[in-house]
Amino acid sequence: MSRKRRDRSWPPAPEPLPRPLVDNHSHLDHVLEVADGFGWRERSGDGPGDGWLDGEPTVADHLVRAAEVGVDRVVQIGCDLPSVAWTDALLRGPALPGARVLGGLAIHPNEAVLHAGVRELAPDGLEPHPRPHHAVPLDEAIAEVARVAAANPRVRVIGETGLDHFRAGEQGRAVQREAFRAHIALAKELDLVLQIHDRDAHDEVVEVLLADGAPERTVFHCYSGDGALAEVCAEHGWYLSFAGPVGYPASADLRDALHRTPPERILLETDAPYLPPHPYRGRPNGPYLVALTAAQVAAELGTDLADLCDLVSRTGEELYGPW
Ligand SMILES: [Zn+2]
Question: Rounded distance, CA 189 to CA 230, Å?
């Protein structure tokens, strides 16, 4: 019996962008964990780092790959305790070739639940899988985020934080809400950008933001709402970061939201290694592929791609400051 093997190689590089662009949200440490990553390593030559030609791509490889298609800035998000430490070390380490990196830190809502000791079955049937770092109590984990963020001037974001009703049951939702509120307070205290994770929890996310007062610069990462929510966001001056799904054939709601978002509130991201742009669903994602999402968004909006890149780059600089 033969079954067609799914292609899990890295998608080919998109057409280089006419102007530089920012990937607003990426998980480079998780990108490194993607196995079978040989798809784009055929060229020979003097690439950065060891193992350019054999073994998995390094962080530098991914940053060079991004810069080659015009993605010259990346926001690296570390949203569990090991990733917080990894991101801090990356930002403090020697400058790498390729795209420049700033960081964001948080305890992800689904991590918050595990730190709080909640072990309930998710609504989707997924069993909790605590790891050793979840022995750290939630308030201590958030305190660690605060400590690292305050001490590293290249951390410009608190996120991703928010609510995940897809993954959390009743107890988990209560924990997520309190963790979200603590992160909102932290973003305001440190005067950093807030990046929100909102999965099946649109109304509650807005409710918490309005009740506690949203930070001055608030971004919905991997925006997943419809046009009506986009208008609520616009009303409050919040930013919408569109990821690969905006180009999926079934995502009419996201494209409606895109049209209803003020151009100066639009950001673009990969959320790599997750959610690769169309037509590469099921394959790994890397910061270089935000170039493809940008082309799809420009076509959808009927805008010149160079103008879109300039606009999004300017918004990125306004939000995060100099790279
Ligand atoms: Zn993410």
Answer: 26
* Spatial contact of 234 and 261, defined as CB atoms under 8 Å apart: yes
- Which strand (E) or helix (H) includes residue 148? helix 138-151
Ion ligand 1 residues within 5 Å by Cβ: 271
CA of 27 to the centre of ligand 1 (A): 6
pLDDT for position 57:
78
Q: In the chain, at which residue ranges do the beta strands (DSSP E only) sit?
A: 21-26, 71-78, 100-105, 155-164, 193-199, 218-220, 239-242, 266-268
Structure-block tokens of residue 111: 């991590």
What domains sit in the chain, N to C, each tagged with a CATH number? 29-41+53-320 (3.20.20.140)
- 177 CA to middle of ligand 1, Å? 18
Between the CA of 25 and the centroid of ligand 1 the distance, in Å, is: 6
Rounded-to-integer distance, Cα 309 and Cα 5, Å: 36
Token couple for 121:
């079955």
Question: 189 — alpha (psi -120 to 50), left (phi > 0) or beta?
Answer: alpha
Q: What percent of the residues of the chain are helix, what percent strand, and what percent coil, each to the nearest 5?
A: 45, 15, 40
Instruction: State the distance from the centre of ligand 1 to the C-alpha of 30, rounded, in angstroms.
Output: 10
Distance 77 CA to ligand 1 centre (A): 7
How many angstroms does the Cα of residue 272 sit away from the middle of ligand 1?
7
pLDDT in tens, 295-306: 999 999 999 999
Task: Write the pLDDT tens digit of every residue in 39-77.
Answer: 444 334 444 333 333 456 789 999 999 999 999 999 999
User: For residues 98 and 63, is the Cβ–Cβ distance under 8 A?
Assistant: yes
The distance between the two most distant Cα atoms of the chain, rounded to a whole number of Å, is 60
Q: What is the Cα–Cα distance from 306 to 159, expressed in whole angstroms?
A: 29
Contact 8, 284 (CB under 8 A): yes
Residue 87 zone, left/alpha/beta (φ > 0; ψ -120 to 50; rest): alpha
Residue 273: cis peptide before it, omega within 30 degrees of 0: yes
Six token digits for residue 295: 């082309």
Ligand 1 mean position to 156 CA, how many Å?
15
